[in-house]
Design a protein that fits this description.
The chain is of the alpha/beta class. The protein has 2 domains: about 5-205, inorganic pyrophosphatase (n-terminal core) (Alpha-Beta Complex), CATH 3.90.1640; about 215-335, Diaminopimelate Epimerase, Chain A, domain 1, CATH 3.10.310.30. The protein is built from 13 helices and 12 strands. The chain has helices at about 5-10, 30-45, 75-85, 105-110, 140-150, 160-170, 185-195, 200-205, 210-225, 240-245, 295-300, 320-330, 335, and strands spanning about 20, 50-55, 70, 90-95, 115-120, 130-135, 225-230, 235-240, 270-275, 280-285, 305, 310-315. Strand 8 (about 235-240), helix 10 (about 240-245) and strand 9 (about 270-275) form a beta-alpha-beta unit. Helix 2 runs antiparallel to helix 6. The protein is globular.
């Protein structure tokens, strides 16, 4: 974070403010962890802060300290809109384009608050007056830890904040195995544990609480997997009918895309998930090495993200979308197989 923006943030927070904290639509562990950690911090510093999620989020994240205080924009629409309207400051965390908040976009675009962006995705837009953007960071949660440190308050991080921050770093780094996990990341994790983060319990709550229906859905996804050895690629699909058959709950498809990368020789993995309610296919892309799924998603599927993890969408059906996807691979064969 540059000196000018840091000083502007310090000045902004020097007196109590009404603050709204916003994650992206379909928030994951990093989005919920970072917004709740910041919420705890701002409350501690005397601000009137509220987290407003664009929609619901997975049950396996609802144990997190403060989660019961999050407003759901879809369910608590009137209260959420009023909170945004009254906010003097709006923090947006774990996204860098207002289009990532779904139905909330119009409300944020018309808000008169000062916007503060904290995010680690590539190619940020310029809606925020104060920006903390760092694509080299493992997660937005690690950025929140660094931000609190830059504000001179690392010592106020308590066990509740530590548990939220640890959760986001752990989930966004694939349990500390992704390339963005640095020695600094591990030093942050060590300090969080010293401050009360319950690492074993967090891992259990996130990864070891499967339902029978989710395991059956995993089996279905693995059964549907297609392996394209000539392109070092594996992809799988889940139709709305299959989601309904296995009683899909929000969060049940989290991490399924990564199974393709466990195959020897596979460098590019994709999952296509039908969403009849929104009329789209939601797509997750993962890669290992230097192949940029961020570029691939931006160029072909209205998406983006990180070099090795990105998302996108398609308005076509599964068969049409996968056919189009496969038609793209020959032009990337050299990158994928060299």
């Amino acid at each position: 974070m540059n000196f000018e923006h840091l000083n502007a943030l310090k000045e902004l927070l020097s007196s109590p403010k009404r603050i709204a904290i916003i994650p992206h639509k379909n928030p994951d562990g990093d989005a919920i962890g970072s917004t709740l950690a910041l919420w705890h911090y701002l409350q501690l510093k005397g601000h009137e802060a509220t987290v407003i999620s664009p929609n619901d989020y997975p049950k396996f994240l609802k144990w997190m300290p403060g989660a019961n205080e999050i407003l759901n924009f879809e369910r608590e629409n009137t209260e959420s809109k009023e909170c945004i309207k009254q906010a003097e400051v709006i923090f947006t965390l774990d996204f860098n384009h207002l289009g990532r908040v779904g139905q909330m976009t119009e409300n944020l675009e018309s808000a008169e608050a000062t916007f503060v962006m904290v995010d680690h995705h590539q190619q940020p837009s310029d809606y925020a007056k104060i920006m903390y953007s760092d694509v080299a960071m493992s997660s937005t949660c690690e950025m929140v830890y660094k931000l609190i440190s830059l504000l001179g308050d690392v010592e106020v991080i308590n066990a509740e904040m530590a548990n939220c921050i640890y959760t986001g770093i752990m989930t966004d780094t694939g349990s500390f195995k992704f390339k963005a996990t640095t020695s600094d990341t591990h030093r942050v994790i060590a300090d969080l544990m010293d401050k009360g983060a319950e690492n074993t319990e967090i891992h259990h709550r996130i990864y070891d609480t499967n339902s029978p229906s989710r395991l059956h859905l995993l089996g279905c996804a693995l059964e549907n997997m297609v392996i394209l050895e000539e392109f070092s690629t594996a992809y799988t699909t889940l139709s709305q009918e299959e989601l309904d058959r296995y009683n899909y709950q929000k969060g049940d498809t989290e991490g399924l895309v990564n199974y393709g990368l466990t195959l020897e020789g596979i460098r590019f993995a994709v999952i296509f998930i039908e969403n009849k309610e929104e009329g789209i296919l939601k797509i997750s892309f993962r890669s290992v090495g230097d192949f940029s799924v961020n570029d691939f998603a931006r160029n072909h599927f209205e998406g983006g993200g990180h070099t090795n993890a990105a998302g996108g969408k398609s308005n076509k059906n599964i068969s049409e979308t996968t056919a189009y996807f496969k038609s793209l691979l020959p032009r990337y064969q050299k990158e994928l197989t060299q």
